[in-house]
Amino acid sequence: MSVAASNKQKYNVRGSFRFQPTVFGSKEHCCVPLCSSSGRYNSRLSFHRFPKETSLRLCWLQKIRREGFTVTPHTKVCSRHFLENEVITTEKGRRILAAGSVPSLFEWNKYSRKTRAGVWERRCRPSNPEPDSADPIEDNEPPVMVPMVVDHDYGASRTVCVDREQYHSMLREIEQLKEQLRSCSLQKPFGLERFSTSPEDIRFYTRFPSYEHLKAFWNLIEAATAKMVRVTRAKKTDVMSTTTETPFTRPTKLLPIDELFLFLSYLSTGCTQRELGHRFNIHRATVSRIIVTWANFLYCLLGSICVWMSPAAVSSSLPQDFDGRYSDTQVILDCTELRCQTPSSLLLQSEVFSTYKSHCTFKAMVGMSPHGALTFVSALFEGSMSDKEVFRQSGITSLLTLDMAIMVDKGFLVDDLVPGTVHRPAFLSKRAQMSEVDVLKTQSIARLRVHVERLIRRVKENKLFDSTIPLSIAGSINQIFTVACLLSNYQNGPLVRKWRYEV
After folding, report:
1. Cβ atoms within 10 Å of 270's Cβ, excluding its own
2. What is the DSSP letter of 323?
């Protein structure tokens, strides 16, 4: 057997038994990643220290991919990572490395130094046909210049392969995007005219049943908007003047009817002023001034109309359910509370805190005629005030006479304040059980008085009052609530469907 064959058999490390313990094993192991060679299990391997030359040592670290690795005298690389001609056996049988040897066989290159051929070598090119020497015409023609592709071959061909289905789908998508862009550019801005054909949207944003009802209300107040006193950024003066507005003197770019639509949307949706500014494309401060301006305007305009009805008018529209014992009822009263933001002052907290709601609230008293129309609304008071005190300070006492009766809940102990009759459910007091007469009286009053709760629910359908009132609008919340109550007479029909034909 030749020496080369003997060395090949001796150093065929990949075919050896790596995990078979040796008799005289050592503790040496290889530091190359993904290599588990150890002198304890394989005596055919030799382990070599890193060279002392700095440049060669850096080359070793780069080849074995161990940057930032600290080399010690015990750090070694096994002979598995060197070529066969780089490992030399001395006369004494010791295996050493040839000068300048660098490890090049690793797990990530499959222990081979073969490199992949370049793009130019891998490309299949047609063989150039030999020119025919018998044809004298072809010899005189100049050679055809063919552009040489150095790196990529897709630039040498002028033929482009396109998926026909994908191409048509992309064309359809482009047309759809163009149509969407065209519709967005032609879409009406956020305003009343945009929802004129949708009663559902009109009801959602304004609480009016339809666009025609809202326009009818606008026709009633349109003439008065010319003398509207606006809240502006200018300093307040003692002398206030009113001028007729024109499109050039109007402080905002919104039309007056769109400003009304903004105010009604603020009541109905309860969204923030910043959100309204984004919808109407105006500044948030402008939205705040529009809300305060229209709250004061409608408070004065609708408040100047007398909603209190005379006894004759109430009697002429009295439903049949009130005939008999309660035919003298002039108004049905009840209090409602609006949750407000908790103030930081402890004194204010004690004034507006309501033990009934366990929260800081504003309290108001609402009055309804027997046929369902709102005829009285008080100012807002502190939530800690009792129903009797709210009744006393509301000013309704001056409107009542001896022939007028009121219908209230149990909390209204106002017999000493009312000149006429008070229809109120009976108290249990210290009795163990109510009498039959008191039970029937309580049921009959509750059946009629429940409609004022429904009227209050109509007002609170405006999401602004159904949520917590921020203290930032506390200065105008009284006007806003009063306007919302007065608008309920214009926005809704009768409370009870059968009263529609009796009134």
Report:
1. 15
2. S
pLDDT tens column, 89-106: 888 888 888 888 888 888
CA distances from 367 to 55, 138, 266, 330, 335 (A): 99, 113, 25, 10, 9
* Token pair of 213 as six digits: 């009802």
Neighbours of 171 (CB within 10 A): 10
- Encoded tokens for 3: 């020496």
| Residue ranges of the chain with per-residue pLDDT less than 70 | 1-25, 115-122, 125-162, 184-188, 233-252, 497-503
Residue 490 CA to residue 263 CA, distance in Å, equals 16
Q: Are the CB atoms for 259 and 290 separated by under 8 Å?
A: yes
Q: Which helix (H) or strand (E) holds 360?
A: strand 359-368
> Please, where are the H alpha helices in 413-462?
436-459
* Closest to 296 in 3D by CA, of 457, 116, 478: 478
Return the structure tokens found at 468. Answer: 């917590």
Closest C-alpha to 46, from 70, 5, 16 = 16
SS3 sequence of 310-332? CHHHHHHCCCHHHCCCCCCEEEE
Label residues 58-79 b or e (16+ Cβ within 10 Å = b).
Answer: eebeebbeeeeeeeeeebbbbb
One-letter identity of residue 432: A
Question: How far is 411 from 386, CA to CA, in rounded Å?
Answer: 8
Element (DSSP H or E) covering residue 365: strand 359-368
- The span from the CA of 339 to the CA of 246, in Å, is 40
Q: Are 11 and 84 a contacting pair, CB within 8 Å?
A: yes
What SS3 class is residue 197?
coil
* Per-residue DSSP letter, 419: S
Domain map of the chain by residue range? 3-97, 193-303, 311-500
Rounded distance between C-alpha atoms, residue 155 and residue 19, angstroms: 53
Nearest 5°: CA angle at 228, between 226 and 229?
A: 145
Residue 96 three-state SS: strand
Q: Which residues on neighbouring strands pair with residue 220, listed in sequence order?
A: none
Q: Tokens in use for 40?
A: 């304890």
Residue 227's contacts (CB-CB under 8 Å, 6 or more residues apart) are 242, 244
Amino acid, res. 311? P
pTM for the full model?
0.61
User: For residues 265 and 204, is the Cβ–Cβ distance under 8 A?
Assistant: no
